[in-house]
Each structure stands twice: as C-alpha cells, then as structure tokens.
Amino acid sequence: DPAITNALSCLRNTYTTALLAYAFSLAGETSTRSELLNALDSIAISEGPKLHWSQTSSGDTLAVEISSYVLLAVLTVQPVTTVNLGYANRIVNWLVAQQNPYGGFSSTQ
C-alpha cells in the first residue's frame, strides 16, 4: 500500500533517528540507543573540529535540531566519558557556529 510505504519512509530519516536516539537514551535502552547512534555516526557530516547531521546533502533548516538531539543523546549516557565529551564538543562547535548575532538560531522550533 503506498500510504504505508510513505509513512514508513517518513520514519526512516535522520531527524527521526536522532529523536529516537534521545528518547531511548532517556528510557535507559542502551543497546537500542547505541545502534541508533552508530547509524547516525555513519551519516555524520564532519568538517574538521565540527560535526553535524542534516536531512539533505545540501543542508536544511532541521540540521540544528537534528544535531541538538544527537548531542542530548550522547550526553545522556552515564557515566559521561572523555570520548563522549570529545564527540559532544565537536557537535557543540558546529552548533555555536550556527547561532545568529543575537544568540538564537534561524528556522528552528
């Protein structure tokens, strides 16, 4: 059925994967969280010391939101390790570069 196919394709995107990684982190589902973070890591966009995620190859308005959910998922795990902090730092570096002069972000919720 095309409706089901379309619905499933909506669930198979970077935004949903990032949101699920954070949700499973909060729920304490470490194995599912790890699988989702591994999948996200494989599609991360690395720019030197910066790391982020996007829905499209050319960037999109959700990139800040997606990257923020990944950051939350990474920092939710306990105990936070130096490896996690280093990874999180790369995400924060990218997020800070996206801020406008007033400290906010454009086109995000």
TrEMBL record:
Gene3D superfamilies named in the record: 1.50.10.20
Source organism superkingdom: Eukaryota
Span of domain Alpha-macroglobulin-like TED: 6-109
SUPFAM superfamilies linked to this entry: Terpenoid cyclases/Protein prenyltransferases
Pfam families according to UniProt: TED_complement
Endpoints of the signal sequence: none
PANTHER family in alphabetical order: ALPHA-2-MACROGLOBULIN-RELATED, MACROGLOBULIN / COMPLEMENT
Name of the featured protein: Alpha-macroglobulin-like TED domain-containing protein
Species: Cirrhinus mrigala (Mrigala)
Phylogenetic lineage: Eukaryota, Metazoa, Chordata, Craniata, Vertebrata
